[in-house]
Specification:
With 455 residues, this protein is mainly alpha-helical. 78% of the residues lie in helices and 0% in strands.
Length: 455
């Protein structure tokens, strides 16, 4: 049996995989505006293969996962050492002020050197800069491990390490996170930052829990030994990264001139001014309450070292869940809303935490606090990255590090207040101050708008 002969137009349309009726209507349509509608309806399934939207990991590549692992390892060390140092200092001195100062010293290099590190990072290959940073931090932790096992560790040496490792923290935004953005591209940056913050917040579960357990069983020397091991694995992952700078390292020119250019760009962009204003408020009035969690755990909730570590990790549990949800659900259109909603809810919930008398309820409040903090943490670097010109991203993320680095002011305030009225009262006070500051700054943060507008 011979099949009926098809018209030439129909055979050609089928050969191209296009519906015949759509093909003919496109051919004959007198209105050219009809063409994009028909073409899109025909080829869209090929442009977006089935299941692509459900694959949040698509297109990241092995270098992204190596850089993510570096962040996870360094963050785990950071939170484990922060918890162990806080307990060690409080048990030696019984001073909430000195406990707050240990965290303050980890933040101080951001305020002092953040802008310089951002401009400096543009002059070097980022993989080499990241490897050097990890080596310096590993040397500091190794030194304290030796002193601890020798029985010669004192508070001032903890303070010195906090400052040195804080310098490594200040380099994270302009070095590792810019490298991650170059690996995945601007369109995937929001999702990449969600995964990175999920790893960071996962470390806020792992770090305090492991640090508290090691502190209880093997002393603070065991905590610093684990730090050295994790730094070694992070260094190995860094050296395996194949991606190089998307833009050639800057040759010549003044670092100060580069910083001035970055600041001038911030002044001209109201969205960046809004993001950085909120970052300053969060780091002065909201985030410093974390330094009071170990003190409240021991003095008000009557927990030991291991229990304190578990409680301190609850904020990380919530932040991990929040960052994972952001990676799966939030599109670029809602980045700014996630940012502001996160910082506002965080400020309210830290007050709730301070008011609760039961460890279980306090842990639940910290989980909720972490959910809010995830929105802020994911979006602050993402928004700056998206709003910045590609050639200025390191510099502007360095400026962001400076804004994060004003945190020592907040730790100084909450530490002084805690010495006067106790850790619980100081935490409530700082939450109220955060909400008041956000209300006063609303003309600035309302201008952030949607991340997709003009970005």
């Amino acid at each position: 049996m011979i099949a009926a002969r098809q018209p030439v137009g129909r055979r050609r349309a089928q050969g191209r995989g296009l519906p015949c009726a759509r093909f003919r209507r496109q051919d004959r349509a007198p209105n050219p505006q009809a063409r994009p509608r028909i073409v899109l309806s025909s080829i869209q399934p090929r442009a977006a293969p089935a299941g692509a939207a459900a694959r949040p990991f698509a297109g990241f590549g092995s270098d992204f996962w190596r850089l993510l692992y570096v962040g996870l390892s360094v963050f785990t060390v950071r939170w484990g050492e922060t918890l162990a140092s806080a307990v060690f200092v409080f048990q030696r001195t019984h001073s909430p002020f000195l406990v707050a100062m240990m965290t303050m010293l980890r933040l101080l290099p951001m305020g002092l050197f953040g802008a310089f590190l951002g401009a400096w990072a543009e002059r070097f290959e980022r993989r080499s800069a990241l490897a050097l940073t990890i080596l310096v931090m590993a040397a500091g932790s190794a030194t304290l491990a030796i002193l601890a096992f020798a029985g010669r560790l004192d508070v001032w040496e903890i303070a010195a390490l906090s400052f040195v490792n804080g310098a490594g923290w200040a380099a994270d935004n302009p070095v590792r996170r810019v490298a991650m953005g170059e690996v995945v591209g601007a369109e995937r940056m929001g999702r990449a930052m969600s995964f990175d913050v999920a790893a960071s917040t996962g470390s806020r579960m792992l770090g305090p829990a492991i640090g508290g357990a090691l502190l209880a069983s093997g002393g603070i020397g065991a905590v610093f030994t684990l730090s050295v091991i994790l730094y070694a694995t992070a260094l190995a992952a860094t050296l395996l990264v194949r991606t190089r700078n998307a833009h050639a390292p800057v040759a010549g020119g003044s670092v100060l001139a580069g910083i001035a250019e970055g600041l001038a760009f911030v002044r001209r962009d109201p969205r960046l001014r809004g993001v950085l204003t909120v970052t300053v408020i969060y780091n002065i009035f909201a985030w410093p309450f974390t330094s009071m969690v170990p003190v409240i755990a021991e003095t008000n909730l009557h927990l030991g070292s291991a229990g304190t570590g578990v409680l301190a990790s609850m904020d990380g549990v919530g932040a991990f869940i929040g960052a994972s949800l952001l990676a799966a659900l939030v599109t670029r259109r809602y980045f700014a809303a996630a940012y502001m909603g996160g910082v506002m809810s965080y400020s309210v919930l830290l007050i709730v935490f301070a008011l609760l008398p039961d460890p279980w309820l306090a842990g639940g409040a910290l989980i909720a606090t972490g959910l809010g903090g995830a929105g802020f943490s994911v979006m602050q670097a993402t928004l700056v990255y998206l709003f910045a010109p590609p050639e200025m991203r390191s510099r502007l993320l360095g400026v962001l590090s400076v804004c994060i680095g004003v945190g020592p002011v907040g730790f100084l305030i909450i530490g002084t207040t805690a010495n006067a009225i106790g850790a619980r009262g100081a935490t409530i006070a700082t939450g109220l101050e955060a909400l008041a500051a956000l209300a006063l700054a609303s003309p600035w943060w309302r201008r952030i708008g949607r991340a997709g507008d003009g970005g």
